[in-house]
Amino acid sequence: MKYVENAKVISQKEISPGIFDLCLQTENIAKEARPGQFVSVYTNDRSRLLPRPISICGADSGSGILRLVYRVTGKGTGTEEFSRTEEGGSLRIEGPLGNGFDPDVAESETVMLVGGGIGIPPLLETAKRLKAKCRIVLGYRDSSLFLKEEFERYGEVYIATEDGSVETRGNVLDAIRGKDIKADRIYACGPKPMLRALAAYAEEKNILCYVSMEERMACGIGACLACVCASREKDAHTNVHNKRICKEGPVFLSTEVEL
Amino acid sequence: MISTKVSIAGVELKNPVVTASGTFGSGEEFSEFYDLGELGAVVTKGVANVPWPGNPVPRIAETASGMLNAIGLQNPGIDVMCERDLPFLAGYDTKVIVNVCGRTEEDYCEVVRRLADEKVDLLEINVSCPNVKEGGIAFGQNPKALQQITEKVKSVAKQPVIMKLSPNVTDITEMARAAEAGGADAVSLINTLTGMKIDIHRRTFALANRTGGLSGPAIKPVAVRMVYQVAHAVSIPIIGMGGIASAEDAVEFMMAGASAVAVGTANFADPYAALKIVRGIEDFMKEENIEDIRSIIGAV
Q1: How many domains in chain B?
Q2: Nearest CA of chain B to the CA of A6: how many Å?
Q3: Which of A223, A244, B116, B286 could form a disulfide with B158 if both were Cys (CB 3.0 to 4.6 A apart)?
Q4: Is a pLDDT exceeding 80 seen at residue B131?
């Protein structure tokens, strides 16, 4: 079930330059959300028609609090407008949308959660709900390590930084190979080159790799066909080699899609 | 007691609000939000004789009070439409308008023939998509080609035919007259206006297709003007569209001469948009003591 709600802002703070941590009080969305799903956030500026898809960083089913950690994409953007919303204000949101990561993995398995940049936030709720053992690999630009301490509650955390200021210099793949991090499956979210490299790594190691994709969206619910990605097999819904990221995704098995 | 009923080519709609093709899929995604039976009609996404993969991504870009799209008429083909989408829509107390696209006249006719025995109330022929190389707009920018394809489609169609017109022409009344001369039962307008957006940081086009169709409130005054012009040029009914986001917008189109209105891009800004417009028109009628919505058609 999908809902459109006017969600009240409970708190908002900038946790890293340009990265905002927003908590919203929802009626149903947080209760029904699964890790890896996203919400559409609408702007209050009527000249910006389209909702912004933002991944769910936290969803507390008891309190109904939904947490979004997002990046402001530039001056005069919708995300900049969201970042100025203060406690007591509200934002119209729609969700939960998309499929999400499957949290029901056997306890005997080890899952490697791999996040790059603004792809990190949706893995937090995933880590929280997984009963399997987690190894968490996070890639940042520099030493501004947002959410790192929260991830440490759920498993061993490995860091890669582009500038080499913390742990492995380079990207998440450099950390995975450098520290020989082993797992039975990978859950990943981040830039496409990262996902492509992880898919190749998973194929080499013969393990499952699930990737969360993104693309420009209009409706967010599967009607407009804007956010498609190429699929290896003919998709059952579209009847062509295209899958809707907002509906069949955003999480796909790496071998289902062309990265 | 107010009456919101309108008629398009002999087909009675319970209210004048329909969905604009391409913004509503075949209705399934929006049926999670409200009963499709609240709408005058559901207009499906364009369907061709065979599946079409559409254009590369990015396919959309937001613009001021509007958006550009270049989806490229991705569709699963007429077989899937008949097996899955039409039976689904038959479950709702609403009229069904199937939008038909093609590359050649024969492509269009093949789809129209397939639909002859299906539970479809009206056909909308898309001769105005700006985002595909063949077919589409090639028929919609030349009055002779438009009249000819209208005649061809009419010769095989069992349902009344609506020709969907492009605004990307010098004189839209010429195209409307060509459609009428070809035997069209109605016209719908406007499709999107061709536009372009540049990503100045990447120094390239915002859309992979380079150009796209502009829709949303930004184009509404152009659309209202064209509906008004066409209403004075032909005697067949008009379905008006282009940036309708509120009941007031819908009323404006009807006063310009539209018998019904289509809600498109607004569905993306609010999944309940079309339903709210249905309700808003009723409220407007009560406030203004309008008993029959048909009395406002062409009221200016």
Answers
A1: 1
A2: 12
A3: B116
A4: no
Please determine, for the modelled complex, whether the ipTM score is greater than 0.90.
Answer: yes
Closest Cβ opposite residue A223 in set B25, B58, B67: B25
Residue A170: pLDDT above 90? yes
Region for residue A190 given its phi and psi (left: phi exceeds 0; alpha: psi -120 to 50; beta: otherwise): left
Of A97, A127, A157, the residue at which a domain comes to its end is A97
- Classified as helix, coil or strand, A155 is coil
Which residues from B are below 8 Å from A239, CB to CB? 51, 76-77, 80
Residues of B carrying an active site annotation: 129
| Domains in chain A, number | 2
- Whether A14 is in a domain gets the answer yes
Q: The CATH number of the domain where A136 resides is what?
A: 3.40.50.80
Cβ contact B59–A219 (<8 Å) = no
- pLDDT tens per residue across span A179-230: 999 999 999 999 999 999 999 999 999 999 999 999 999 999 999 999 999 9
Contacts of B114 by beta carbon, 8 Å cutoff, 6+ apart = B49, B78, B82
Q: For position B279, what pLDDT does the model report?
A: 98
Contact A217 B60 (CB under 8 A): yes
Rounded to the nearest angstrom, the minimum Cα separation between A104 and chain B is: 26
Distance (Å) from the alpha carbon of B167 to chain A's nearest alpha carbon? 21
Half-sphere exposure of A142 (CA within 13 A, CB side): 3
- For residue B266, is it within any domain? yes
Residue B239 CA to residue B260 CA, distance in Å, equals: 5
**Are the Cβ atoms of B65 and A240 closer than 8 angstroms?**
no
Instruction: Report pLDDT for B138.
Output: 77
**DSSP letter (8 states) at residue A160:** E
Region A106-133: mean pLDDT is 97
Residues A120 and A86 in one domain: no
In this structure, the answer to whether residues A123 and A246 fall within a common structural domain is yes
Residue A197's closest CA among A168, A215, A177, A183?
A: A177
Cβ separation of A49 and B52 shorter than 8 Å?
A: no
Residue B135 has pLDDT above 70, yes or no: no
Domain membership flag for residue A243: yes
Q: What is the mean pLDDT of residues A2-19?
A: 98
For residue A118, give its domain range: 110-253
